[in-house]
Every structure is written in C-alpha cells, then in structure tokens.
Specification:
This protein has strands at residues 9-12, 21-28, 32-35, 40-45, 56-61, 64-65, 69-73, 78-80, 82-86, 92-96. By secondary structure, the protein is mainly β. The chain has a domain at 9-74. A six-stranded antiparallel beta sheet has the order 6-3-2-1-7-8, with no helix packed on it. 0% of the residues lie in helices and 46% in strands.
C-alpha cells in the first residue's frame, strides 16, 4: 500500500521548495510525485502549428522524489509520517504516526 496517494495534501520537507504545500496531482514512475504549485520551472517551448501549440516560455510543475514530501496532518497543521495498520476485518488503512488517527478520517 502506498503511503502517499493522488489527491493527498503534502508538505515539501527538503529541497528548494521546502515548506511548500500542495495537492498530489499524480505520479511519474513509482518514486516521483507531481505536486500542484510546487517545484515550478520555466520551460521554453517551440511553436508547433500542427498541434496548434504556441511557442514561448511556459511555467510548469516538475516531479519531486517521494522522499522529499510528507503527508500534511490537518489536526497538528504539520507534516507527519504515515504507517499502515491492518484492521480486524483485514483492511489496510493509513495512520498518522504522531497521533494514531486514520488518514482522511
């Protein structure tokens, strides 16, 4: 079970954008995560009239390594680690390590 999923709110804990918060938009491979509004770069794009694409400088998000983000805990208003707990009915759920409450509950 993945500890970070799409649509989770995360905090950047290392790198240039440390402290930045955003929503996970998706994954690039198994170890890179795309976070909305974080790690933005300027990319120079050539015009492509076949696609109707205008050239210029485009600002876009680039993927971060999963180890550089942590799940945001709304109760403590801080980044928090996550563990996986198996319930009595054999379902696996994500749990915040600091408080023991369920993620998304």
């Amino acid at each position: 079970m993945e500890k970070i999923r799409k649509n989770d709110e995360v905090v950047v804990i290392a790198g240039r954008d440390k402290g930045g918060r955003g929503i996970v938009m998706g994954f690039e491979g198994c170890d890179r995560v795309l976070v909305q509004g974080v790690n933005r770069v300027k990319k120079h794009v050539k015009p492509n009239p076949m696609r109707g694409q205008v050239g210029g400088v485009v600002e876009k998000e680039m993927p971060l390594h999963v180890s550089n983000v942590a799940l945001f805990n709304p109760a403590s208003q801080k980044a928090d680690r996550v563990s996986v707990r198996i319930l009595e009915d054999k379902n696996r759920v994500r749990v915040f390590k600091s408080s023991g409450e369920l993620v998304g509950a």
